[in-house]
Amino acid sequence: MSRPLTTTTESRAVRFALILAALAFLALFLVLPLVAVFAEGFKSGLGAWKEAVSSPDAISAIRLTLLVAAISVPVNMVFGVAASWAITKFDFPGKSLLITLIDLPFSVSPVVSGLIFVLLFGAEGVLGPFLQAHDIKIIFAVPGIILATIFITFPFVARELIPLMQEQGKEDEEAAISLGANGWQTFWHVTLPNIRWGLLYGVLLCNARAMGEFGAVSVVSGHLRGETNTMPLHIEILYNEYDFVGAFAVATLLAGLALVTLVAKTLLEWRFDIDRKGAIQ
Amino acid sequence: MTNSFTLTTPSPKPRAPGRGAFFALKRNRSVLPGFGLSLGFSLAWLTLIVLIPLSAIILKTAGMGWDEFLRVGFSDRAIHAYRLSFGTAMAAALVNGFAGLLVAWVLVRYDFPGKRIIGATVDLPFALPTAVAGIALTSLYSVNGWLGQWLEPHGIKVAYTPLGITIALVFIGLPFVVRQVEPVLADLGKDVEEAAATLGAGRAKTFLRVILPAILPALLTGFALAFARGVGEYGSVIFISGNMPGLTEIAPLLIVTQLEEYNYAGATAIATIMMAASFGVLLLINLLQALARRRQA
């Protein structure tokens, strides 16, 4: 057998076959569904698409989705930064337990994430009688949708920042403090520039999920047209009424959001690489 | 703002080296401010948004009584739903274990045009809303869909069968495996492979005996994450599954059905059993992972 002694890669043919197999899998399972959304959405022409996305119910669904994201994303961004600051800049007991607890919403089914808020605030729930007495509606209303979305997107920013800030250490901040900067100055001028790209990506992912969440929101929304329907719920209603063109037309908006998120991610990674190489030089 | 954690004056009486002194010492090592504020805020928000709502499910289950819990939690319909959910999630996670390893390998080891863009598509299931994925997959695999029209004449029914559910879960779970395996594969030094080749091992043998053991913990983690996500997945599945009770009704859908019938006890019992089973599987995988790490060390 004559094999070169230090082969650490495969033959051309094997490499080619593996690349082809991987690309075929990705094309069939990931890319094709995305293409199908746009193909179905524009199947009946631009006019039908425009009509579907500008119907009063669609507009109110888009509005509600934007409102939910506008509240839940900033709130979780502030939490994510605070939690990452505490976890990566200080030592304290129970840190890994805290990280596990932050991750909890990832491992809970979206449906269960909705269920817990029904059990808390629903008519039969723990706080149900109190809320009814004071005429406060949370379940089957907008506050419930916002709460469920905050729960679902809770870990996103923190999960993105913790590994990044851990890698960066705390020398920069310590230097700033010892040179006389106060806490906020240190955060704004030292920490934030260091973590901005990671933070931005975390916020983008958080936003994509906040706008696209279906299971949890579906449980708490009550599906009132024009009132408590977000875009994914509106898509479901249209689809179940066999209005496929309408359903896919609204779906193209969310698929477009997904594409923007992915493009932004790719650009951010590219920036990251440049920043890192710059730091090394 | 004054900060209680950056003490500059030593306490007058030296404390006994108990727990308190230990914590005080550990905290004082950092000169950075904001520990109390950031940790306090994080804990308060975590408690309010995650811990209190999640405890509602435990309270409700605890107040249910054992007999009722067993009756509603293990009805025939519920047992069928668990079997379907865990079975399809397991099948999809297995497919993703192989496919994810293949994709990660190709992305880390080989260079080809458009690699960055192809790498980005792996994250598509994270970014695409599940309901959108659900209706797209259903239209692809229905009788006159792009793929369904080719599969149907061969007797392969995908839409409204467990196979369709599995395909939806393959879509949802792939990035979990790829993103776990990728960094470990990239960090793996070439020197061990060179050593194996020098000692006469072929590529296949090197892969099985040297590379695979090193990436196995990451692969198992990815598998477990994909599995856990698949068991609870709802949006991408309910469109393609057909939702026939006893046939293609997944456990999360059964929870929703119970809720729509105002059967809160039933919904809670099923949710508790699902969560317990998922955590059990995750625990098992963690154990396997620890074993794999130990064998490697």
Topology readout:
The complex is a heterodimer of chains A (281) and B (297).
Chain A: H1 12-41, H2 45-53, H3 56-89, H4 95-107, H5 110-121, H6 128-133, H7 142-153, H8 156-168, H9 171-178, H10 183-212, H11 215-221, H12 231-240, H13 244-280
Chain B: H1 19-28, H2 35-62, H3 66-73, H4 76-109, H5 115-121, H6 124-127, H7 130-141, H8 148-151, H9 162-187, H10 190-198, H11 203-232, H12 235-241, H13 251-260, H14 264-296
Describe the structure.
The complex is a heterodimer of chains A (281) and B (297). Chain A is mainly α and 281 residues long. Chain A has helices at 12-41, 45-53, 56-89, 95-107, 110-121, 128-133, 142-153, 156-168, 171-178, 183-212, 215-221, 231-240, 244-280. In chain A, 45% of the residues are buried. Residues 1-6 of chain A have low confidence and may be disordered. Helices cover 75% and strands 0% of the residues of chain B. Chain B starts with 18 loop residues before the first helix and ends with a helix. The model of chain B is unreliable at 1-28 (pLDDT under 50). Chain B has 297 residues and is mostly helical. Chain B contains 14 helices and no strands. In chain B, helix 7 (130-141) packs parallel to helix 12 (235-241) and helix 9 (162-187) runs antiparallel to helix 12 (235-241). Chain B is globular, with a radius of gyration of 25 Å.
